[in-house]
Design a protein that fits this description.
Layout lengths: L8 E4 L3 H11 L6 E5 L7 H12 L3 E5 L4 E6 L5 E5 L4 E4 L2 E3 L3 H9 L6 E13 L3 E8 L7 H11 L8 H7 L2 H12 L3 H15 L8 E15 L4 E2 L4 E6 L2 E5 L17 H4 L21 E5 L1 H4 L1
Parallel strand pairs: 1-2, 1-7, 2-3, 7-13
Antiparallel strand pairs: 4-5, 5-6, 8-9, 8-10, 9-14, 10-11, 12-13
Helix pairs in contact: 3-4
């Protein structure tokens, strides 16, 4: 699609935080020509209802799914030009980016958000022969895109492709990141993981008759936003207002590949703690700390 007639607004990604920003804008203006570009094959029901509401309010919204923006730049005469993986271009007077980890990637390419990084946490659940459930969280160098693209994008956010090690060292200076990396080393070998978890359950339940632990399923990816300047986890969405007409909205990810229905990010208390990897206490209701296993008892075993 040639970038001839510019859109009034280009929305990159369908994260709920970005759509909320869009709602505030559409409520004060009329008859906007909008393009919503999203890498997912289809919108989730909540996002689709939002698009339908824009149409009902008199706005025109063109929806382009399975479309990934790889480059965004300001044009000399104003406005912005976005380019996709298949070389399509979109021109817009105003841009809102709320596309998960791609948000930070595009922002940093334009020189914004250099004080931010991401901490992706993989997870898996194990069960014992007595019904105990344990969840592990540990560092993974792959973002929610998955596969080779998710790995390359994370290297770009760490700026390792530029030979600059400072962002990596800054990330490792944050305690949750160090714990998660240590956990990935400890729990990187399934036989060792099963043995460690079995020993833990046998210590916690000496009379429980636990003799076997097996992997049940993988858990959705978690991705936290790290503020490198004060070495803390971001609480709530981060708004990077680069210009009056350019906004980046970055949120933590609390489910799999979509960021639109579960928007509560993992809190600092869920991602930090005084225990070292392998020494977590039972926490029936809260998510596991990175590098620690949370133990959930089935209802039958509580009686």
């Amino acid at each position: 699609m040639p970038a001839t007639t510019p859109y009034d607004l280009l929305i990159i990604g369908s994260a709920s935080s970005g759509l909320a920003e869009m709602n505030a804008l559409t409520s004060t203006q009329q008859a906007l020509h909008i393009a919503l570009v999203d890498a997912q094959p289809q919108l989730d029901p909540d996002s689709q209802r939002q698009v339908d509401q824009w149409h009902a309010s008199g706005h025109t919204c063109e929806l382009l799914c399975s479309t990934r923006i790889t480059d965004l730049r300001r044009q000399p005469d104003g406005g912005y030009l976005a380019k996709t993986t298949d070389q399509q271009t979109f021109s817009a007077r105003r841009v809102i980016v709320a596309a998960g980890s791609t948000t930070l990637l595009l922002a940093q390419r334009m020189g914004y958000g250099l004080n931010l990084s991401l901490l992706p946490l993989a997870g898996c659940q194990y069960t014992s022969d007595q019904g105990h459930q344990l969840q592990l969280r540990y560092f993974t160098p792959v973002l929610e895109q998955g596969g080779w693209q998710g790995f390359v994008d994370y290297l770009r956010i760490l700026r390792l492709n530029q030979g600059d090690l400072r962002p990596l060292f800054s990330l490792l200076s944050v305690k949750p990141a160090r714990k998660a990396l240590l956990a990935s080393l400890i729990y990187g070998f399934p036989p060792l993981t099963r043995w460690l978890l079995l020993r833990r359950l046998q210590r916690q339940h000496p009379d429980g008759g636990v003799t076997q632990v097996s992997k049940a399923e993988n858990q959705p990816l978690l991705r936290s936003v790290i503020q490198l300047d004060d070495k803390s986890l971001a609480k709530g969405p981060i708004r990077i207002e680069a210009k009056d007409d350019l906004l980046f909205v970055l949120s933590s990810l609390s489910r799999g590949t979509l960021e639109t229905t579960q928007t509560v990010p993992p809190s600092e208390s869920e991602l930090t703690g005084n225990s070292t990897p392998g020494d977590a206490e039972e926490t029936p209701e809260s998510p596991a700390n990175p590098g620690e296993a949370s133990t959930q008892e089935e209802a039958s075993s509580d009686k």
